[in-house]
Amino acid sequence: MANRISGYKYLLYFCLMFGNLAKASVDSAQVFRGLPLVDTKTHISHLAPSLPPAKASLYEDLFRYQLITGSNVLPFSFMGKMAFGGYISPQATMGVETRLKSQNRAGYMQSIGAVFYPLKRRFKSEQYVAANNKAEVVSIGIRNIQMAGVTFSGDAYRLVFRGNGYYKGKTLDVGSNNFFALGMNTVDFGIALPQSKNIEKFYISLAQVTRYNVLKTEDLSFYTSPMADSVVLNGRYYSQSTAGLSGDQKGLGIMMSMDNKMRVKSSGTSQWAQAPIYYGLRDLGVLFLPTLSVDSRGYIWDENTSGLKPAGESPIKSVTVTQAVVSSRELQFGNWFTSQRDTLNARLKVVSQTRSGTVISPFTLYAQKELFSYRPSNLSESKKGLGTAYNHAMDVNFTYLNVPGYVLSTTLSWGSYYRPKGEQKWTSFYSEYYLGLGGFDTWNLGYKGFLKSNIIGIGQTSFMLDLRGLEAWLFPKRQHGAGISFGVRCKL
Question: Which residues contact 260 (CB under 8 A, 6 or more apart)?
């Protein structure tokens, strides 16, 4: 019975969809963290798929926190209140309604984590490291992951945030919607491959699933009578969830990641022709889900309870429910579902079952190339307050993450390298401004800085701060998509 009522909430109350998007960290109490990846000469991190990834050098994360949000319609302040609580006024919901598109999307990622290095590797001599040509584990990291993405129709938003009382005598074409949420704990093994000319580093990750939710609807409609005394429902949907299961029942997985470098053979002498292409993938693998609660309407499933994709569609009919004036507040607290439980049980004919299966983990693909760089001819004319700028570079990056709501991201960055003038506690500084298009967002402006310094007992250490979506931080009620990342990196 509880599973069926939960399914009805998915069917009629897309606020659950947004609520899960905003509060995915509640179930697992964990957050998303990137792999312990090798840093770059430009100090560009690919811990987050939506940010420019790294080129190879000898630095790896010791600690990192990261938060990224994005949408093509929901303002940053709106998503923040959904995620962390707060009053969303009717004016705010109406303001979003005027900007709704035929296809709307939103998503977020949050991460925190640390990396540990085997001491025997860290303190081996440079001669040993240079002479060693065998593959070996050089880093061990732990991650706590949370990510969620959703694509939704304009009428789905209207039903969630305004209720059907505003649309008497009208049909809300909720249509096709797709929601995905995943939480994982992982242990990541960074493996050095000295004999490989192109693979900068290779990773194997063992994952424990802490949360998995999928909701898909098709041709869903919600008609409210002119007197608001009945509603007519129709459409197909299915939901899959690990909610209420113990940790050992939610699933396990194995994934791989790698960073590669490729030089394109060219007869040209330009910097564009000579600069290598850095590319790679993140978290490509499979997740085995042994126990999933599946609720569906209008679909046929294989009888062996194995497999998470419907085998086909079954006939459906419209269902009429009386006394069904639904406000957004009633939907939020589930009052309407409680009062209509018997009718829903009798008429919707929701199929509830327990199934198992494997799914492909959400993976990331990226490619990055330096467009050009130059060194100032007169270094004495460069900025003196910060130090001496000795190099400037422009890069372009393409990133794709296979999560609903994420589109191909293109990032153009401009970075400058500085060294101290005279005796300083820091040894170098990298400053970068970037413009991003796509991802969960539409566009964003960002700034990233890396400061390197010698720390006693650790050696060269890099401190990083990344502010993503500066426009959203400045105008949170009008702009959408913002994030922050900070971390510490050290040299192996």
Answer: 198, 199, 200, 278, 279, 280
